[in-house]
Design a protein that fits this description.
This protein is α+β, with helices and mostly antiparallel strands. The chain has one domain (39-202): NADH Oxidase, CATH 3.40.109. The protein is built from 8 helices and 6 strands. It has helices spanning 19-34, 49-59, 79-100, 103-109, 120-123, 148-165, 179-184, 216-219, and strands spanning 71-76, 126-133, 135-138, 141-144, 169-170, 191-200. A 4-stranded antiparallel sheet has the order 1-2-6-5. α2 (49-59) crosses α6 (148-165). The radius of gyration is 20 Å and the shape is globular. 23% of the residues are buried. The model has no long low-confidence stretch (mean pLDDT 93).
Length: 223
């Protein structure tokens, strides 16, 4: 019979602000994140490793099912490995753009101006490859993880916010299928690629698509 661990609790003091402070902080944070944009043109200017570590550790504070924290963040800066990842990603993306994607998806992607060419995978100083764990290995024994996609998705959202907060830019790249990442990075069988994120400074005179986010009347429903 499995031994059920007794819960252990410690005191927690939540942040508290006046209503005026709360309003100002919530507005400031919204305005900060509203300036975040996906960028596909990167500078090769180096980024301090400590900044990357702080960003990832901020993401790793995300909530997760049964506190399993089912994620691994692989940080790639080696030029040879980045080139290998780009080659494999572009092969998958060529197939996607030339038959695998539906006409509807291609039409929806047209205003963004994407194609199978992914030079940013070599130019950006870092690639963060996020892996999800369907189970942990504890002393050779499989231990199930719960709500894996939801948990890793939350961590990735916090990762993007932390990247923007640090004054850097990123791209959420999903060259489906992404199994080549597991092979190139030699990850264990319990890890599957979830997201590939180039991160760095934007290129000089970078441009982004002229897109508009939905307003509050489109995304909020009160009951």
């Amino acid at each position: 019979m499995a031994v059920v661990q007794e819960p252990k609790f410690i005191p927690y003091k939540a942040l508290q602000f006046s209503e005026d402070e709360m309003l100002q902080r919530s507005q400031d944070f919204y305005l900060l994140l509203n300036k975040r944009r996906t960028v596909r043109d990167f500078s090769d200017k180096p980024v301090p490793k400590e900044v990357i570590e702080n960003i990832i550790m901020a993401a790793s504070t995300a909530p997760s099912g049964a506190h399993k924290q089912p994620w691994t963040f692989c940080v790639v800066s080696d030029t040879t490995i980045k080139s290998e990842i780009r080659k494999a990603a572009e092969e998958e993306e060529y197939t996607n753009y030339h038959g695998r994607m539906s006409d509807e998806l291609l039409q929806d992607l047209a205003p963004i101006g994407t194609d199978e060419h992914k030079p940013f995978l070599e130019i950006a100083p870092y690639l963060i490859v996020v892996f999800k764990k369907s189970y942990d290995l504890v002393n050779g024994e499989k231990r199930k993880c719960y709500y894996v996609n939801e948990s890793v998705g939350l961590a990735c959202g916090m990762l993007l916010a932390a990247i923007h907060n640090a004054g850097l830019v990123a791209l959420t790249h999903t060259p489906s299928p992404m199994n080549f990442l597991q092979k190139i990075l030699n990850r264990p069988e319990n890890e599957k690629p979830f997201l590939l994120i180039p991160i760095g400074y934007p290129a000089d005179d970078v441009q982004v698509p002229d897109l508009q986010r939905k307003g509050k009347d489109d995304v909020i429903v009160y009951y």
